[in-house]
Design brief:
This protein is α+β, with helices and mostly antiparallel strands. The protein folds into two domains: about 15-260; about 265-355, no CATH class. It has ten helices and 16 strands. The strands form three sheets. Strands 5-4-3-2-6-7-12-8 form an eight-stranded mixed beta sheet, sandwiched between helices. A four-stranded antiparallel beta sheet has the order 1-9-11-10. It has a four-stranded mixed beta sheet with strand order 13-14-16-15, with helices on one face. The protein is elongated, with a radius of gyration of 22 Å. The chain starts with 14 loop residues before the first helix and ends in a 13-residue tail after the last helix. Mean pLDDT is about 80; it is low at about 1-25, about 90-95, about 100-105, about 350-365 and about 365-374.
Length: about 375
């Protein structure tokens, strides 16, 4: 997610790399357009006649802005607003937005873009980036500088938030709690990127309990590749001349409807006390994989945190996270398993077989570090 409040993300890397990035403020990661398209294609009906705000997105590098600008008419948007914090280290590589806009390059600062209409400006029969560039260069009311620094918490940026219907962006990982809290405060719909470790934050976990947030449509914890500045020494590959880093713990968060969270989890395993031992400090059984939830057990169960990617609030109730009655980590014979969510099947829900998911099951027992947020 972003450090500098443009679309630069510190989502994941791996735990060790993430910690290093936070310390060094080396978290300028740029989301690929295909990853954005893959997730946002599921929400087309949600965007019609809506004002979309990308409040952590410099159009110089933001593929979020590019996606909505190119699909403005196809999605039936009412308005697109994007704000930027400060100049990007790769500014100007895509669009030279400031040229011919009475904003000298040497005086670049935080700015906003507000688009209400995109026409075929160059007459080639289609809407593309050239049309967007012509619009931005020739309509001085579209691109304007901000009075402040573009911080999403600033008064002028909050005013833009109030105007919007849906917020879509990649917020700064270090401020993820504050960012979500602001969206909650103003009751905004959102589709944002985050780190899977955020699932363990008490503020975020509480929203899952209240069914006010859920994971997105893209497969959970499969990892994504992000572009990084040329100055980065550590990277995984080079594509089209640009360095890329794989972030294994990235995922989408939203409060919009997601089909998989309305589907019932189908169980096929039968309960037995040997395979499902009880915790020392809580009256609940331990389940090592969400696919192993027994269909014939109605008591409280401890499941891996990856369960949240399949969580259907009409089928299960979330009781609590990680702690036993003594407020210590859940334990079995004195040993603590990986973080567990305590759940209980609702009485009116069905229990039936599911397709096994190797990609999710492989992550079920992955450690989430010594996170003490809850």
């Amino acid at each position: 997610m972003i450090d500098g409040f443009c679309e630069k993300t510190s989502i994941g890397m791996a735990k060790k790399d993430l910690q290093a990035a936070n310390k060094a403020k080396n978290d300028e990661f740029y989301t690929q357009l295909n990853d954005i398209q893959l997730e946002l294609s599921h929400y087309k009906k949600d965007f019609k006649d809506k004002i979309v705000l990308c409040n952590c997105d410099d159009p110089y590098e933001s593929n979020f802005f590019k996606y909505f600008a190119l699909n403005f008419n196809a999605l039936g948007l009412k308005k697109l607003i994007a704000t930027c914090y400060d100049p990007s280290p790769i500014a100007g590589q895509q669009l030279n937005l400031f040229e011919d806009n009475n904003i000298e390059v040497k005086e670049k600062k935080a700015y906003k873009i507000e688009i209400e209409e995109i026409l075929d400006a160059n007459g080639d029969g289609s809407i593309n980036l050239t049309d967007v560039e012509i619009l931005l260069k020739n309509n001085k009311n579209v691109l304007t500088t901000l009075d402040g620094d573009g911080d999403f918490r600033s008064k002028e940026c909050v005013e833009l938030l109030k105007q919007s219907d849906i917020v879509v962006t990649n917020p700064p990982f270090s401020l993820f709690r504050e960012y979500i809290a602001l969206l909650e405060q103003y009751d905004k719909s959102f589709i944002i990127m985050g780190n899977t470790n955020a699932l363990t934050y008490k503020e975020i976990f509480k929203l899952f309990q209240q069914d006010k947030i859920r994971t997105g449509n893209t497969n959970f914890n499969v990892g994504m590749y992000f572009y990084v500045p040329d100055s980065y020494e550590k990277f995984h590959k080079i594509e089209n001349g640009r360095k890329m880093v794989r972030v294994s713990t990235s995922c989408w968060y939203t409060n919009l409807e997601v089909k998989k969270h309305k589907e019932e989890l189908i169980s096929f395993k039968q309960y037995n006390s040997e395979e499902y031992p009880k915790y020392d400090n809580y009256d609940a059984i331990n389940v090592n994989k969400y696919t192993d939830i027994p269909y014939d057990y109605d008591g409280i169960m401890g499941v891996p945190i990856t369960f949240l990617d399949k969580y259907n609030p009409n089928q299960f109730e979330i009781i609590r996270f990680r702690k036993g009655n003594d407020e210590k980590d859940l334990s079995i014979n004195g040993k603590c398993p990986y973080f567990r969510i305590l759940i209980r099947r609702k009485q009116n829900s069905a229990a039936y077989k599911i397709e096994d998911s190797n990609s999710m099951a492989a992550e079920d027992n992955a450690p989430y570090g010594n996170n003490s947020n809850i």
